Amino acid sequence: MPEGNEIHRWAARHTAAFAGRKLNVLPGPNHRFADAHRVDGKKLKRVHAVGKHLGYEFGDDLYLHIHLGRFGDFTEGCGPLPEPKGALRAILQRAGTEKASRSQKGQPHNLTCAKDDGTQPFPPEEVDWCELRGPTDCSVYDGAKWAALLDRLGPDPLADTARSGENGGHDDPARAFAAILRSKKPIAELLMDQAIVSGIGNIYRAELLFRHRVNPFTPGSAMELKTLRAMWKDSGPLLAAGMVDRRIVCTKRVDRPTKSEPAARGEEHYVYRRHGKPCLICGEKVLRRDLVGRTLYWCARDQGTSEAETATAFAEGMSLRASREIAKPGGKARKRAGALLAE
Ligand SMILES: [Zn+2]
After folding, report:
1. 144 plus 210 within the same structural domain
2. Whether residue 147 is found in the same domain as residue 172
3. How remote is the CA of residue 210 from the centroid of ligand 1, in Å?
4. What are the residues whose beta carbons fall under 8 Å from the beta carbon of 174, sequence distance 6 or more?
5. Ligand 1 centroid, distance to 264 Cα (angstroms)
6. From the CA of 250, how far away is ligand 1's center (Å)?
7. 241 CA → ligand 1 middle, Å
8. pTM to 2 decimals?
9. 258 and 174 in one domain?
10. Is residue 119 domain-resident?
């Protein structure tokens, strides 16, 4: 699932390629984008990114709202549009480029595509269109609906005014700190709640908690404000770094076994998906368990989890599906695996 860094990256690219121009906004052949006509042919002002939401702001106070969800992705290209294929939901195309004036022979359709690793140059002036596939939402909002969405979202570390010079009123971390300190839910759950902080996903959640040596099961109300402030301060540059090369690197060079810069493969994370492997700092095995439907990774020693908390980790080598079954309270699998969990 794309985290906030990816969403901001798309916003920056699509602002560079399309802002200030009139766009053809076309639905895909599956007719799941029924209100495309409301923004079709209008000039795009800019593209906003807040948390995991994209808002393409058109004239007349209209926003094309896109939430990529788990499977959504864009393909960008130049020249004439390719034949529709896959679960194509929407196409944004510069108006006037329908009949490409340049030589079409041998012209690649996909000048740049979603699968790039972010290290390739991105020439926005050469992008004529982008295709959207598999989003959770792609629909037209009016200004009031967009504003209501922003009100429901917590502050976004990447929209911090001090860094980006742009806000929309969604940069004030004090709102997030207050919400966390009011809650008895574990901090690991609160960080994933987009109403509290927006843009943090499963990778950044695990890595931020580790970097600050926070026990992921600490109730929000037991967190120290200075730790929350430090995590917020840390999250901006970490998210921003992930925007540049599409790799989310959360380890400090000094902590990497090879001390390489940039990080070698497999040394990007302290705990995320490193379950069963030795912690880069203390050497203990990294643990994982399900927490509200998403897998949490942590190091018991560095993050100081209690014996009881540590014991909730899935048995090593257990498949995620099996472990999810066990996590269901009262489930048959839970009883069967009771002995395994007690080990
Ligand atoms: Zn450790």
Report:
1. no
2. no
3. 9
4. none
5. 19
6. 15
7. 24
8. 0.79
9. yes
10. yes
